[in-house]
Design a protein that fits this description.
By secondary structure, the chain is α+β, with helices and mostly antiparallel strands. The protein has 18 helices and 23 strands. 35% of the residues lie in helices and 25% in strands. The strands form six sheets. Strands 8-12-13-20-19-18-17-16 form an eight-stranded mixed sheet, with helices on both faces. Strand 6 and strand 7 (150-151) form a beta hairpin. The two termini are 24 Å apart. InterPro entries: Aa-tRNA-synt_II, aa-tRNA-synth_II, aa-tRNA-synth_II/BPL/LPL, Lys-tRNA-ligase_II, Lys-tRNA-ligase_II_N, Lys-tRNA-synth_II_C, NA-bd_OB-fold, NA-bd_OB_tRNA.
Length: 563
């Protein structure tokens, strides 16, 4: 393992701590009795406290030092004084341990008394401190120059998502996002629990990936010797519980879809699904408005939420627009009576990429997604989807070509999907068979036929309304984040590239190229200051590792980075 200079120094300090008989990673309980927030909110001069946290800054001035420690609630100033800590002749704890062996990032425990500095800062006077965990890597802390400019911030998205543990330490606003996420889920739970609905759990490993049109992840169970799928939705299991006699059930479900990744899609995501007996999609629209009003108030103290350049109002009521009407409004084309071939040609004329595997439902979905969706910034229910788009939805009571379904659009994206649930087992079987035909045409997102679910319906399911709300997208809205990666602690990432170990000669050449990207071979050699032999080894090493390339341009040889 190649260590940086800082990492080497910290490991040397680790050894010195052990030589002094100090365990840098003690096992026993540390009796913390307060937090930085409690100290500030319930301040009492002279009060004895025991606090623990991460050392984030310090200013050593001889035998005294002001520092800051950070705990789960924020930061608090602490004051180290040699004579307060080392009351006897032995000053090792301050002179050696604190001044020389402690580093920014180390986690320490502090026993002390509260006092207020001359400038009014609430501070802990350290009477004793203990090493609780030695940090072997330096934190990437931002620095500020004399003009107030901040540099060295830990703000590269890929690094932040890969090393969320560092991100949370050095970027306090990130922590606020995840605290708010918990407030949002707690708010939803409170809303449903107060109405008597039961929170349940359903299988993640499923023999049939049902409840949605999506490409699943496939695995294999060795003991049973059967294929299993990570669930793409929990809908069919929750409806089985309605058949079983529960009037209202909900679940915060981890779902998995083996599809693309972008700013609003992660292969693993969280959905809240609710099913309530004896209700329909009109009732569900009213209930969803009430829920989102409450969530906005609980998360932000207002029904108005700033998202990017928009102020979004979650106060009810929300507009309700049939999907075919929305397409007509935004394209000028009435697709309500079109069959599959005509729809495909219409989509092509609108500049939408389609293929022969797409049926009526997918074609309408593509047209709406490309031409309409982005117009709906304020919460809007898009309703009454064609039957081909909604294989689990009850036929519309006034138009047999449509279904009683809505999607809630907010900020140009789908936030929720809801139905009057199909409870006719014969109709449901026919819809599944239609999906099977789409699968045979090559649609790898078409639904499987779930025979056990059909059997459950044959025992009788009461009229039911169900909804799925994308929790990750809801948190994005409520926290003003434009990327799903910002609201997931550990988003899925591409495999991390292994660090390439460069020789001193290779590094000297590479560092020059990093600034210029491309330059003449002669100029690069001159600037490197290397001997002919060292130069040859260095440039050959970089090209063999595919980090640099040499190519002829006109009569000159140019060297450039390949990244």
């Amino acid at each position: 393992m190649q260590l940086s200079e800082q990492e080497v120094i910290r490991r040397e300090k680790l050894g010195k701590l052990r030589e002094l008989g100090i365990n840098p990673y003690p096992a026993e309980l540390y009796p913390v009795d307060t937090t930085s927030k409690e100290i500030k909110n319930d301040y009492e001069e002279g009060k004895k406290v025991t606090i623990a946290g991460r050392l984030m800054s310090r200013r050593i001035q001889g035998k005294a030092s002001f520092a800051e420690i950070q705990d789960s609630e924020g930061r608090i100033q602490v004051y180290f004084n040699r004579d307060e800590i080392c009351t006897g002749e032995d000053k090792t704890l301050y002179n050696e341990v604190y001044k020389k062996l402690l580093d920014i990032g180390d986690i320490i425990g502090i026993e002390g008394e509260l006092f207020t500095t001359q400038v009014g800062e609430k501070t802990v006077m350290v009477k004793n401190f203990k090493m609780l965990s030695k940090a072997l890597r330096p934190l990437p802390l931002p620095k500020q120059d004399s003009e107030g400019k901040v540099f060295d911030e830990f703000n590269d998205p890929e690094l932040r998502y890969r090393q969320r543990y560092v991100d949370l330490v050095v970027n306090p606003k990130v922590k606020e996002t995840f605290i708010k996420r918990t407030k949002i889920t707690n708010s939803i739970r409170e809303f449903y629990n107060n109405r008597g609905y039961l929170e349940v759990e359903t299988p993640i490993l499923q023999p049939i990936p049902g409840g949605a049109a999506a490409r699943p992840f496939l695995t294999h169970h060795n003991a049973l010797n059967i294929p299993l799928y990570l669930r793409i939705a929990n809908e069919l299991y929750l409806k089985r519980l309605i058949v079983g006699g529960f009037d209202g059930v909900y679940e915060f479900s981890k779902d998995f879809r083996n599809e693309g990744m972008d700013r609003t899609h992660n292969p693993e995501f969280t959905v809240m699904e609710l099913y309530v007996a004896y209700k329909d999609y009109n009732w569900m629209m009213d209930t969803t408005e009430q829920l989102l009003e409450k969530v906005a108030m609980d998360a932000n103290g207002s029904t108005k939420v700033t998202v990017g350049n928009h102020e979004i109002e979650f106060k009810a009521p929300y507009p309700r627009v049939p999907i075919l009407e929305a397409i007509k409004i935004h394209t000028g084309v009435d697709v309500s009576q079109m069959e599959e071939n005509e729809l495909r040609e219409t989509a092509k004329k609108l500049g939408i990429e389609v293929d022969d595997t797409m049926g009526v439902g997918k074609l309408i979905d593509e047209i709406f997604g490309e031409k309409c969706e982005h117009h709906y910034i304020q919460p809007t229910f898009i309703t009454d989807y064609p039957k081909e788009m909604s294989p689990l939805t009850k036929e519309h009571r006034t138009n047999p070509r449509l279904t009683e379904r809505f999607e809630l659009m907010v900020n140009g994206k789908e936030l929720a999907n809801a139905y009057s649930e199909l409870n006719d087992p014969i109709d449901q079987r026919e819809r599944f068979e239609d999906q099977l035909r789409l699968s045979e045409k090559g649609d790898d997102e078409a639904m499987f036929i779930d025979q056990d679910f059909l059997r459950a319906l044959e025992y009788g399911m009461p009229p039911t309304s169900g909804i799925g709300i994308g929790i990750d997208r809801l948190v994005m809205l409520m926290t003003n984040n434009s990327s799903i990666q910002e609201v997931l602690f550990f988003p899925q990432m591409r495999p991390e590239k292994k660090a390439v170990q460069l020789s001193d000669n290779e590094k000297a050449i590479y560092d020059i190229l990093k600034k210029k990207k491309s330059m003449s071979l002669d100029s690069l050699k001159t600037q490197s200051g290397l001997s002919n032999k060292a130069w040859d080894k260095g440039i050959k090493g970089l090209t063999s590792q595919n980090l640099a390339k040499v190519q002829k341009e006109n009569d000159a040889l140019l060297v450039s980075l390949t990244e």
